[in-house]
Amino acid sequence: MIVLCANRLFTPQEEIQNSLLFIEDGLISAVSSRAQQEVPKNATVIDLSDDFADAILSPGFVDIHMHGGAGLDVMQDLPAELPRLHRFLATHGVTGYFPTTVAAPLDQTCVALERLADAIEAAQDSPASNGDAVQARPLGIHLEGPFLSHKRRGAHPPEYLVEPTLKIFERLWQAARGHVRMMTIAPELPGAIEVIAEAARRNVCVSIGHSDAVLEAARAGVRAGARHATHTFNAMRPLDHRDPGILGEVLTDRQLSADIIADGIHVAPAVVQLFLQAKGIERAVLITDATAATGMPDGAYQLGPTQVQVKDGKCMMDGKLAGSVLTMDRAVRNVTRFAGWSLQEAVRAATLNPTRAVGLSQHGHLAPGAEANIIVLSPDGEVRKTMVRGRGF
């Protein structure tokens, strides 16, 4: 048994002072304060206050929408090259993530899905660290494209967008060997409602986005089984006070969770604050939409089948934003600055909320039975240490 001791702990629903976290076989067995529980004599005790007097224990971040980082693109690079990305993510507090596709020729997409399925299955069987290097793990695939609106396609190549059909969805599902956990779809497209219903039946988190939907079309998608929204405001029909469109549904439906890219570039800080007020502490989700350029110098990088140019923190393609270079720890810190949320509230939007949205019950919170995916934060939200499945401290 390992026992972690720290000044504070975010579950993240609550804060525990003078905390103890008990770990056995890579799982959390108990969470308490020092006043509530004694440490067994045979336990290995790691007192984080020895190195960090103000240490905060938190669940590891989970990024449900990211395309790459550290020079690697999840659609292009082989599973053997992914450990570099996984180490990079762990240094920024991410312990689990959804590799996310972009629209590409269907044959290429299927090959990429097969490779990502290999990586997910290998991660399930392999240790969480390689030597001293802790690694994030791919937990499922986010299918962003090909079922997107041409008008709101963003950086997705128009020639690779297709109308949704059960036949194409089944082909993608089989290529991914059932590891598609999330799918972004424009609900107004012909055939979308049928595909949404089938994906939801298979427990895929269906997310409406890259959409020019009017309000009723968005609501029809939710009635069919969609339960989330992708990078709110970006690649969506703009909000109008007489024609609220998809954003009218996203911002007002209390049952719908939604995510946002809080880099201050994709969405202005004041609008990030508006989003957080609308979705609240339980439904707001932070994502990065990170590309291979994340953590790298300015230059040209791959995003699926296309290339993006990065300069001064912006990823661009043909004059449009094309993903980001945001890291999740920075997104959390930005939320505290943009909206005045506490660190605990911001952490929840990067841990419990995304995992609840996509149905990952063993991730995103510190509670008995959950995986011991843990980070140590400073009071300012800087990541100091990362543990995955009980390894890394």
Would you give an account of this structure?
- This protein is of the alpha/beta class and 393 residues long.
- It has two domains: 1-60 and 364-393, Urease, subunit C, domain 1; 61-363, Metal-dependent hydrolases (TIM Barrel), CATH 3.20.20.140.
- It is 28% helix and 27% strand.
- The chain has helices at 82-91, 106-125, 166-175, 192-201, 215-224, 245-252, 269-283, 328-339, 343-350, 352-358, and strands spanning 2-10, 15-24, 27-33, 44-47, 56-59, 61-66, 68-69, 72-73, 94-99, 129-130, 133-134, 137-138, 141-144, 180-185, 205-208, 228-229, 257-261, 284-287, 299-303, 306-311, 314-317, 320-321, 374-377, 383-387.
- The strands form six sheets. Strands 1, 2, 3, 4, 5, 23 and 24 form a seven-stranded mixed sheet that branches.
- Strand 7 and strand 8 form a beta hairpin.
- Helix 8 packs across helix 9 (343-350).
- The longest helix is centred in the N-terminal third of the chain and has 20 residues, at 106-125.
- The chain is globular.
- The model has no long low-confidence stretch (mean pLDDT 95).
